[in-house]
Automatic annotation (TrEMBL):
Gene3D superfamilies xref list: 2.120.10.10
Protein name stated in the entry: Sialidase
PANTHER family in alphabetical order: BNR/ASP-BOX REPEAT FAMILY PROTEIN (PTHR43752), BNR_ASP-BOX REPEAT FAMILY PROTEIN (PTHR43752:SF2)
Sialidase domain ranges (all copies): 63-337
UniProt feature coiled coil, ranges: none
Any Pfam family hit: BNR_2
InterPro entries in the record: Sialidase (IPR011040), Sialidase_sf (IPR036278)
Length: 387
């Protein structure tokens, strides 16, 4: 009888092991869409032909998204546009900020970033200037969920606010704004405010490390007890990371993650269950290049911020680009993502994290069948060797 019980337990254990093992190998018919609840455009028509750099926040009244739109990036007519999700639909986009200086001078607007202050205003950070190496930071606020906005306020000299991705409120009460500069090389630092933008301090530039690693546009992940991690796009054909043990005041030298990237913007968020979610183009640039096509657009998951598993492919068309994501988790646990769709529209995707599946990424290779020719195994294998 005892032998039968042991045999039965062994059988159950083997069954569970085999089931677990099978879940780690994607089936041939894997859709890479499990968990997606909503997939829609924020608008179908707009009074401008080109848009980019979306951002999203959740207010007590619902979701708000913003982006820059105009004739094309760098054009003086580019302004910041906002839409609010009311019920099941998004409101008609409205321009809320631009770079008008006077009757004869107007600069383009760049990279809006939304942040909802807990029990407070919705903040909108953005930049204006002729180009990224010469832009400056501004801030606006809304007390009604993005319906109306205050007059623009310039940030202190030398500060630009969060450069692309959302600020993170850390345990000591500081709002850590991840930022970077592109004049005279690429440099990453944190701009920190303890009173939601009234006063500011700035950290030192993060060391590039021995390689060196050229990084911009960080996003912040939290690991508890003052430990933070940032992930950045780079010119080094892979994503880079740096760590802080003191709430973002000081940072380690850059290290490359084993995730390929084509020098395109990313975003990441620490989920309520402690996992970390990353949205990015998992694309290895062609040999000898630091840039590549900004497609497909992927979502990966990690328990520790270092070892990542493949989960979703948001876009996989070879046409145009799908890029510059922004991601948050709502109060109800749902994940909200916005991104550039072919520079023509802004896409919104809602994901249920409880329904997501994931598979290990080994040596930088997205598991299963490659989506495009630029992700064939021979190219991906070279990434693993180089890292």
């Amino acid at each position: 009888m005892k032998t039968l019980r042991i045999a039965a337990l062994v059988c159950v254990a083997l069954t569970l092991y085999n089931c677990k093992t099978k879940t780690k190998t994607p089936p041939e018919n894997e859709t890479w869409r499990k968990g997606i609840v909503t997939d829609e455009f924020i608008y179908e028509e707009a009074p401008y032909p080109s848009c980019h750099a979306a951002t999203i926040a959740e207010t007590p009244d619902g979701l708000v998204a913003a982006w820059f739109g105009g004739t094309k990036e760098r054009n003086p007519d580019v302004g910041v546009w906002v839409s609010r999700k009311t019920g099941d639909s998004w409101s008609t986009p409205v321009e809320v900020a631009n770079g008008v200086i006077n009757d004869t001078l107007r600069y383009p607007s760049w990279n809006p970033v939304l942040y909802q202050v807990p029990n407070g205003d919705l903040l909108l950070f953005y930049k204006i200037g002729p180009k990224p190496s010469e832009w400056w930071g501004l801030k606006m606020s809304s007390s009604d969920g993005g319906k109306t906005w205050s007059e623009p306020e310039e940030l202190p000299d030398g500060y630009i606010g969060p450069v692309k991705n959302k600020p993170v409120l850390v345990e000591n009460g500081n709002l850590v704004c991840p930022t970077s500069t592109e004049g005279n090389g690429w440099h990453v630092r944190m701009e920190i405010t303890s009173d939601f933008g009234k006063t500011w301090s700035m950290t030192d530039t993060i060391p590039r490390g021995p390689e060196p690693i050229n990084a911009i546009q960080p996003s912040v992940l939290t690991h508890g007890n003052g430990k933070l991690q940032i992930i950045c796009r780079t010119r080094n054909r892979a994503l880079a990371t740096s760590w802080s043990e003191d709430y973002g005041e000081t940072w380690s030298d850059w290290e490359l993650l084993s995730l390929p990237n084509n020098n395109s913007g990313t975003d990441a968020v620490t989920l309520q269950d402690g996992r970390h979610l990353l949205v990015y183009n998992h694309v290895l640039p062609p040999d000898g290049k630091v840039k590549g096509p900004r497609t497909p657009l992927h979502v990966s998951l990690s328990d520790d911020g270092v070892n990542w598993e493949a989960s979703l492919i948001l876009e996989d068309s070879e046409i145009s680009q799908y890029s510059y994501p922004s991601v948050i988790q709502g109060a109800d646990g749902m994940i909200h993502i916005v991104y550039t769709w072919r520079r023509e529209k802004i896409k919104y995707v809602k994901v249920d994290p409880d329904k997501m599946v994931s598979y290990p990424i080994e040596n930088g290779i997205w598991p299963g069948v490659s989506v495009h020719s630029d992700q064939e195994p021979e190219n991906s294998a070279s990434l693993g060797a180089s890292l």
